[in-house]
Design brief:
By secondary structure, the protein is mostly beta strands. It folds into three domains: 4-119, Beta Complex (RNA Polymerase Alpha Subunit, Chain A, domain 2), CATH 2.170.120.30; 130-210, RNA Polymerase Alpha Subunit, Chain A, domain 2 (Beta Complex), CATH 2.170.120.40; 213-302, RNA Polymerase Alpha Subunit, Chain A, domain 2. It is built from four helices and 24 strands. Strands 2, 5, 8, 11, 12 and 15 form a six-stranded mixed sheet that branches. The protein has a five-stranded mixed sheet with strand order 6-4-1-3-7. It has a five-stranded mixed sheet with strand order 22-20-17-19-23. The protein is rod-shaped, with a radius of gyration of 43 Å.
């Protein structure tokens, strides 16, 4: 106990020097983690707030750097509020995983508090709308499409969800498609305050058909062929129409039917009378031809100077 005041003072100074030395050898580390809002199920945030919080760690280098960012959870506790309104609350943190048991460890957050607006949480069913971009290949068109699912359930603050009438998909690229296709596409969440239930995707079914070019030509003469000697024929309808279908409009527009393109074959007729015969058409390369009418009545009579048998 001799000179105990001096010994006590020396021990105190040693402890202080040790602490200052330890503090001077500590290192700092900074990173950002997402902010969790913990609240009652009937309320949820209705205004923007910091999504990421800057976290500072101070400790020994070999202790703080192995800590995973996800093992420092940052949150605000809104569970004590049950009435919509605007509240200012402190930003809190908790250690998990690799951060547990690490000493010495100082943890700071920035900002230290935030202001949040809370509103009643509601749910709503809204249709999905496909966000189509680009064009299918030339000569083709998208005739129809469907989404599965075609609607989703969204959760969000009442004031926001009242105005939401539909939810869009992410862009669906149509460029170069020339046949039916199926693809899985993400659902676009345009507001972080809104929660879309499900896995966040929908299946798009696109139906694509080739465009058929068409052209109608009217006033095409109907000729009578194959008459036996001594007979003459006259169709009741002198002209008909042809309906052309092809791959390109240019090919159709350049087609000029020859004079005998429409005809009726009377080679099987040997005596006068009125016969209903099928109208025949000439060939039209790379085109589909339909006739109007398809049949015509033909009056067969003796040629001039011949008597009827």
């Amino acid at each position: 106990m001799e000179n105990w005041p001096a010994k006590v003072l020396s021990l105190g100074l040693a402890i202080i020097l040790f602490v200052f030395h330890r503090m001077s050898t500590l290192e700092d580390r900074f990173f950002s983690v997402p902010l969790k809002v913990e609240s009652a199920t009937t309320l949820m945030p209705s205004s923007s707030y910091p999504r990421m919080i800057r976290v500072g760690l101070r400790g020994e280098a070999n202790s703080i750097y192995p800590i995973q960012d996800s093992d420092i959870e940052v949150y605000v506790d809104m569970g004590k509020f049950n009435v919509p309104g605007v509240y200012t609350v402190p930003v809190q943190w908790r250690k998990t995983g690799t951060a547990l048991g690490v000493e010495p460890l100082q943890i700071t957050v920035d900002p230290r508090e935030i202001t949040l607006s809370l509103d009643n949480r509601i749910s709503k069913v809204v249709p999905l709308t496909a966000n189509l971009q680009g064009q299918v290949e030339d000569g083709y068109t998208m005739t129809s499409y469907s989404l599965n699912p075609a609607q989703v359930i969204i959760d969000g603050p009442a004031e926001l969800l009242w105005s939401v009438t539909e939810v869009n998909t992410e862009p669906i690229d149509l460029d170069g498609h020339r046949s039916d296709f199926v693809t899985t596409i993400n659902i676009l969440n345009s507001d972080p305050l809104m929660i879309i239930r499900g896995n966040g995707t929908t299946e798009f079914h696109g139906n694509i058909s080739q465009i058929i070019a068409v052209r109608n030509i009217t006033g095409v003469p109907i000729t009578v062929t194959g008459l036996a000697g001594g007979l003459m024929g006259e169709p009741e309808i002198k002209v008909g129409s042809i309906h052309l279908e092809g791959e390109t409009q240019a090919v159709l527009d350049n087609f000029d039917p020859p004079p005998d393109f429409l005809k009726v074959d009377c080679s099987g007729i040997s005596k006068p009378g009125t016969y209903v015969l099928r109208i025949l058409s000439g060939t039209a390369e790379d085109m589909k031809v339909r006739l109007d009418p398809e049949e015509v009545a033909v009056k067969i009579s003796p040629s001039a100077g011949k008597e009827s048998p």
